[in-house]
Amino acid sequence: MPHDKRKMRKRRGSRQQGWGQVGQHRGPGRRGGTGLAGRHKGKWTYVVKHEPGYFGKDGFRNPTAVYVEAINVGRLSEMALDLISEGKAAESQGKIAVDLEKLGYAKLLGAGSVSKPLVVTVASASRRAEDKIKKAGGEVVKPG
Question: Which residue ranges make up each domain of the chain?
Fold first, then answer.
């Protein structure tokens, strides 16, 4: 509740009420625009402090590069039993048959270890991956 001792009551008739001449402290111009306006001008220090990297490009993406979905043999060996229970792989004669192309993978890589005999159908595989699968009693089938 206003009372007569408040400074604002004293300034009510003064038009600027302590904010100097002509329109200071009035309107959206005093905040430097709305939204993200002025980030390359008056609000630059905010960008430097809180959002480094907001402007400019970073790095280079080769438009002619081909990105291949790949999976390591260790990960495949861990997933094998889950794939059988989901119906995405089959087990016959003690070996687990997996078609990686149906799972969305184009290449088999050699990181990790293989503990189960796997029959893997894949477009391409690294030499280490093939060796590890053969040592575990499986094979790599390349269609085509």
Answer: 70-141
Span 46-79, pLDDT tens digits: 999 999 999 998 889 899 998 899 999 999 999 9
Q: Please, is 80 exposed, middle or buried when counting C-beta atoms within 10 Å of its C-beta (0-12, 13-18, 19+)?
A: buried
- Do the beta carbons of residue 137 and residue 95 sit within 8 Å? yes
62 Ramachandran zone, left/alpha/beta (phi>0; psi -120 to 50): beta
Dihedral sign of CA atoms 82, 85, 91, 97 in order: negative
CB neighbour list of residue 116: distance below 8 Å, 6 or more residues apart? 77, 80, 96, 136, 138
CATH 3.50.50.60 fits 70-141, yes or no: no
